[in-house]
Amino acid sequence: KEKEYLKLFSTHYSNIKRLDYVSKIIFLYGIFEQFIENCIKEYVVELVEIVDSFDDLEIKVQDDYYKLWRDLMGKLEWAKYEDLNESIMIKNLYHTKCKNSPNILYQCFLRNGGNYNHKKVMETINALVGRDSIKNLPQYDPLRRYLIQHNMDKLDENGKYKLLDDLVMYRNEIAHNGVPDSMLSDIEFREMVHYVLKYAKSLISLLSDELMYVRWKKLQDKSQIVRPTNTWKRPFIASFEAPNIMLEQNELIMVRNN
């Protein structure tokens, strides 16, 4: 009888561990997907505040937007697009194409759920910013420091982003096949969490720089450019000399460090 109880306990304990593992994988990926889509939304909100017209967007963004718009029209019944309808879509097409409005829809850049491995993140961000900027992600802290500390900085793209890609793979295995037979250890899962967090923080920094790049391009066309005589990082101070320049209170000054 005792052996039967032990066997029953072992079976239940094993099932509980599997369910706990499944919930952690699904939860971690769900948070990451929500983070990526929030980044897309916030980037577009900031972007349309900076540029004055659709023509001011990167050429690639202009070229790709209407294809993305058409693709979105076929997905309006999806739950994630419940705040859109055909009327909103048609009005957006009219204002961007005919009125040169920069108010693009962030939803055009979202991907199908469950697919945000690094390759899809790369495609999404590059479409969003209009250039291949995400290749520079490993240069941003804290991901840069993590890759160096774990001897991953010299690896190819597959090696650098394996932990994120594994998370997406495990999530999709669970979604399609249910509870897996093999599971990550608690230590391996915690390492995955640390990696995803550092990836996310570095991506925020990269997108912030992309918005600064857009601001710089706009100012470059309309403002006086002066080369600083010196800069200090902590605290950040820049000195410059320029004749006949008037600085007003609360005026925006940008310093670009090449």
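^ that was protein a. below is b, sequence first then the tokens
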Amino acid sequence: TRRHRRLAIAAVGLVLVVCGVLRGIEAEAYLPWQHHWDEITNVRVGQRMSDDLSVDPGSYDYPALVFLTQALVLLPASQLGDYDLDKDGPVLDVQTHAVARVDHPGLLRAMRWTTGVLPQLVTALAAALIAWVVSRRWHASAAAALLVTLSAVDLRYGVFVTPDALSGMAATLASLGAVMVAADPTRRRYLWTGAAIGLAAAAKYNAAAVAVALVVAHLLTHRRPFADRRPLLEAAGAAAVVFALVNLGGVLNPVGLVRE
């Protein structure tokens, strides 16, 4: 087992390097021009939110996680760096529908890394961990990470500033948690999985469907699953808390959230 563990670490580490390189290349796509309308919209919303130092994006087509992740780049650049929105202008200058000139490619590149590249690295690692928990075989872990790495859709579209990679990351972490619950249903694992489900929903609303994995794990590990429902209720509470904290603007504006 120790030998398999060392081989798994080496093989998965190598796959993660390949994953990062491939996505780092894709993160340069189109620059200094931009032709992805969803990214254009998200960057403008995220920049307005960061400039106002607000937790409310004012737009609820997507939950707030993607905009908060952009803030990890925009706030240090404006507060600690030399970027000033009023003086330097927005990151993107929209020309026509789905076409924008990128006036600050370094900032957009950094946002693509935080919302796309790094989350996909976590997704590949989580997939490898799922395979390891299930099989304890290094080649299974490496194959799972490689499957994520070579996903054509993720390679082509996953690096843009959209919630897709973030929701995929959180959903994969929730799936990992469900597998761990199936292996050993401890309270901590239920709570951890519930938090990951809440994070997935805070990335994309429909990603909350990954909660099915935890329900299935619960049914598999309890002789009386409906009588022993407290762990599920606690996990649901953890999911709700994480979703509310991350998506605080939408929670405080339920009318706008429901309307959009």
